[in-house]
Predict the 3D structure of the following.
Amino acid sequence: MKIFIDSAQIEQIKELEDLGVISGITTNPTLASVTGKNFKDLVSEIFSTLSKDRIINLEVIATDYETILKQARALAALDNRVVVKIPCIPDGLKACKKLSEEGIRVNITLVFSPMQALLCANAGAYFVSPFVGRLEDISVDGMEIVSEIVKIYKNYDYKTQILFASVRSVEHIRLAALAGVDVVTSPYEYIKELYKHPLTDTGLAKFLKDWTDAKEEFIV
Ligand code: E4P
């Protein structure tokens, strides 16, 4: 399972890019606006922070077919790592079909049901983004929705990749992997938690102490 960082904060993106554990990023209008940066400047900073094979999800801010097409083409033309995020509305799905035929990769965002996900696959989406945390905010079992999407896509061998979004905990990342999604996009803080374990820390401290006590010489 690939991991994307769900952030527009350059320092966070850079740190995880340097660690080598992320395959890309997702942003949205809210995440971009809280940076307080001019959008063009922000996007070019993101481009120069991430290496060549990463995926960069940038979202349109239009809701009508023609403007969605215009904005999506403009975003895709900026860099070949861009996947364009488009909301799951009728004009968005129609635009997804057209853009996919043009070879532009589309991530249909704000997906909350298996039936929306079915339409996204039929519209040729590259990614479908079920928002699990937001479903749980309204007491809907987000994991059940994700499992149904996984099953439906398997049943018909859809190529659309499932991008588990709206992560609210480390546990969500574990459940995403168990459910068999293709990608999870997570805020910085949960990705940072993934490599931590108290037994790693105490184990390492003991290894180093035992080595020091033995007064051995290392190879280099
Ligand atoms: C994904 O692409 C979205 O940006 C994101 O996961 C939304 O998460 P939120 O519900 O925490 O805002």
